[in-house]
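Protocol step 6 of 9: fold each sequence in the batch and record its structure tokens directly after the sequence line. For illustration, a two-sequence batch is reproduced in full.

Sequence one:
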Amino acid sequence: MAFFTLNKASLTHNYRYLQKLFSKNDMSWAPVLKMLCGNEKYIEFILSLGDEQVCDARLSNLKTIKKLKPGIETIYIKPPAKRSIKNIVKYADVSFNTEYTTIKWLSEEAKKQNKVHRVIIMIELGDLREGIMGDHLMDFYKKIFQLPNIKVAGIGTNLNCLSGVMPSKDKLIQLCLYEQLIEAKFDQKIDGVSGGSSVMVPLLLKGIVPQGINHFRVGETLFFGSDLFTNETIPGMKDDIFTLHSEVIEITEKPSVPYGNLEKNPSGDMFEVDETKFTDIQKRAILDIGLLDISKVDFLKPLDSSLNFVGASSDMLVIDITNAKKDYKVGDIITFRTDYMGALRVMNSEYIEKRFI
């Protein structure tokens, strides 16, 4: 059975690295835990590392977080759906918002629950995912400040997650100017300016984040040590927190190309036959993991660089071990690192056991 491991020491190291970085810059931050997919033992461990706010985009995960650590402050990091309003107010102390109607629903529900629900208003800065346009901002805020049981906790933006628009000093200055305009017009203090996600960390390390930005939401860099500008590991951070382990269930020498009448496979792919390789023989290993668990093999990187992917079906992954450095046997374990999206797919699979190192 395939299994996935979380390295406690490496995760602790990255958490402390970020704590120190944000503390040094007099900023707050919140780990984004959505990639843990509600796994209680993983969430419980990361909650033991600090008392920072935590973010998630799934209500079921926020419910788990509140069960494990009731006093922790939770942030729901996407605009709420109408049918979720009751549970948003129940399990999220703060939510990201872009629609007046939705905030009005939150206000009504917060009054029923005898709570003050805090909102962060997301502003569009070019990536074209969630966010209100800047020229609508003042009218929007005027209406929000009048709602009972609602407190505007801050403003924020999101970059890089949809269109790949990268943050820049100019964009962040623009966000800070919006905060100053709101405070001046409405005589209301805006406590938080949430500049963005992991993609912002390299700018902070270079010292080019404007002083007005005081809050970050960090997921990928926490779990992978990633510099999203260079796609390399940030010096001083760890990239070995998650590892996927899969067992060899067959090893056989076979032709390197299929034979017979070819049509599209169940994934919709059509195999292209290289006729020059009809006589080639390939030593293949089949592993006990498939597209049901990993979505696509591009998300995986074998630690043994001499291995090559052949393909995958829903339940099995085929590896070319012809030139492998090791003499693999049935029952051996082959280990992979994953990128962020790969780890997210694996964590979301109920069929892969989750373990600690």
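Sequence two, same batch, same settings:
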Amino acid sequence: MTDQTADSIPIEKPVKPKGPLVYRQSIFTRVTHWVWVVALFFLLLSGLQIWNAHPALYIGEQSGFEFDNTILAIGAENTDQGVRGFTTIFGHKFDTTGVLGVSEARGRQNFIGFPAWATIPSTRDLATGRVVHFFFAWILVATLAIWLIASLANSHFWRDILLKPRDVAGLPKDLVAHATFRFHHGRSYTPLQKLSYFVVLVILFPLIILTGLTMSPGMNAAWPWLLDVFGGRQTARTIHFAVMVLLVLFFVVHIAMVLLAGPFNELRSMITGYYRTSPGTEPDAKETSK
């Protein structure tokens, strides 16, 4: 009988401790979240279809040949190299052939603002684009109203969205933690999360809805003060477009943070409501079997 050597003794790897599983997201938060995902997808692509009908943005109440208030324009021009797509921003022209102005669709050159793959429908169909856009716009409005009422009733708005003095004081530290990918998983949102959701839900969503209403002649007759608030229909259209860009940027960063922070845990919280917190963050919470 031979003695076991030290090399033959199996070494157990330390088990990383898990924090408790807590109920973090209410049914209202989860349902409205996924409705917004669908609604914003169709709003973005149908909105680009509408925008392609006149791919330019202005500041002011009017636009036309006699005005010099264009801040963004996408189009095609004949050059020595053939037809090229150009995007002009505040007077600075950029060649964007292949993406903006001139792109390829079904093997043919398409002289249009945004390419066909980025619009709903993919063909030039302004009427259908408007129907789709307005349908999901009212879905967004209704869902936002339901979320606001539910969040005020269950204190989600006061607890997780509204920034408090301690949240403002903790923003720099939380910003550094996110920048260095040191994520804190707790029952409550971090200061940076609160700021992000507050900006989107309290500022950007209402702003994109109100500027959309300002572009409607019917709403101009009912609420003429909207034109004064936003400085005219053309300025409202520009703000509407800018808010859309900000929402897209938020979506990109949001998805990146979900992937970096742990997609399984994040998705579970938005599907079942349960969220795995970091060890020590919820000392009194009872572990839920999983």
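Proceed to step 7 once all outputs are recorded. Observation for sequence two: The first helix runs from residue 27 to 51.
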